[in-house]
Amino acid sequence: xxxxxxxxxxxxxxxxxxxxxxxxxxxxxxxxxxxxxxxxxxxxxxxxxxxxxxxxxxxxxxxxxxxxxxxxxxxxxxxxxxxxxxxxxxxxxxxxxxxxxxxxxxxxxxxxxxxxxxxxxxxxxxxxxxxxxxxxxxxxxxxxxxxxxxxxxxxxxxxxxxxxxxxxxxxxxxxxxxxxxxxxxxxxxxxxxxxxxxxxxxxxxxxxxxxxxxxxxxxxxxxxxxxx
Amino acid sequence: xxxxxxxxxxxxxxxxxxxxxxxxxxxxxxxxxxxxxxxxxxxxxxxxxxxxxxxxxxxxxxxxxxxxxxxxxxxxxxxxxxxxxxxxxxxxxxxxxxxxxxxxxxxxxxxxxxxxxxxxxxxxxxxxxxxxxxxxxxxxxxxxxxxxxxxxxxxxxxxxxxxxxxxxxxxxxxxxxxxxxxxxxxxxxxxxxxxxxxxxxxxxxxxxxxxxxxxxxxxxxxxxxxxxxxxxxxxxxxxxxxxxxxxxxxxxxxxx
Lengths: 228, 256
Fold this sequence. Notes:
- In chain A, 50% of the residues lie in helices and 21% in strands.
- Chain A has six helices and nine strands.
- Chain A has helices spanning 2-32, 43-80, 85-99, 119-131, 176-184, 189-196; strands at 104-114, 136-139, 142-143, 150-153, 156-159, 162-163, 168-173, 201-212, 224-226.
- Chain A is extended, with a radius of gyration of 27 Å.
- With 256 residues, chain B is α+β, with helices and mostly antiparallel strands.
- Chain B is 46% helix and 17% strand.
- Chain B has seven helices and eleven strands.
- Chain B has helices at 2-10, 13-36, 47-81, 87-103, 137-149, 196-202, 204-216; strands at residues 108-110, 112-118, 154-157, 160-161, 168-171, 174-177, 180-182, 186-191, 220-224, 229-231, 244-245.
- Chain B has a five-stranded antiparallel beta sheet, covered by helices on one side.
- In chain B, a hairpin with a 2-residue loop joins strand 5 (168-171) and strand 6.
- The termini of chain B are far apart.
- The interface between A and B is large, with 109 and 117 residues.
């Protein structure tokens, strides 16, 4: 009698534990899949993320519209049998300006950096400008391109092996309000620097019609080859 | 001795099964708790629509990037076809190909190195800053900068090509590269010389980074040197709203 009662109870117990086990395995796998990482963000961070994604998606849509126009023109040129030299030249100019191979002019901001700033802090300023949509950046007369690295110690910095004096300047071409707003917002890079390094200061000035130099670097790789 | 064996054999099977299941259960609960340790979970009502919006926008972004890549490939093909017999078009196309490679608009492969960065599995001591135990945007930026110094020619982070416009940003405890939301582990691929690892080892900045981030805070930093490292093309926008070209001192071929 006792035995017949114990058997179903034990089976129920095993079933309950197995259920819990299965549940936890699923939760654990989902937590590690990465998608759940959004669950770690606060509402404020999520708002920032959504704003960032929205802005980038708008830029991508504009890019697609431009590329589709370019493709149409090329296709029309191709069917007429005429060379699309103007199209190719326009494409080449755009890529060379964007990547820093050619000089570029436009409105933007001029930042004067005074005092002993560290290389990571200066990297942070450049990173912030990129995030704010800067289209071209130069530190003194060195164009910031892919692979540009800031080195040295505070007061003795160099960019791509060119020493920086005190003060030195950063010029960034882009929408002036966005660039200034991003740097000077509450908790932004200017506020962070003021709190952590009061001896360094950034003066920001909207400036029209700046001309930034082309890079001296050779950006074509030796070790890498186009993947076919 | 024989009594112990006899007693062990007397234990019903269901008890053994239950014992093993409970052991696994305990292990999973511990794993779950430790995984949630440094990261706070928010459960406010306004979050759910925000999470859904962010997920949807990220999905849209993936589609838009795919479209950008398709269009760029189609344009490159048409431009190459052009009237390729004329000297001017051949020269322009050759320049264009070189500019696209320089800009990161073409996928590359070559020798190099691959790093993988994961959050620390060490328990966060009381009063310590939990973000010190997580991979941050600054960690990613440091690895990228050190790789450039060591001779890297092309770099990607979780499939996002690092270009002139690439920003690496912390939002909460997540990282955005080229505005794409990335999940750990972070895989940083770099094409460069075969001695890139030796070059990294010579850098004081790299040694400090490893000592602090791996040694002190326990970040999981692993690397591999596969025979071929592949880096994808940049799939973002080449935004030039305020910029205009200035005639360059090194002229492009003139029209006939």
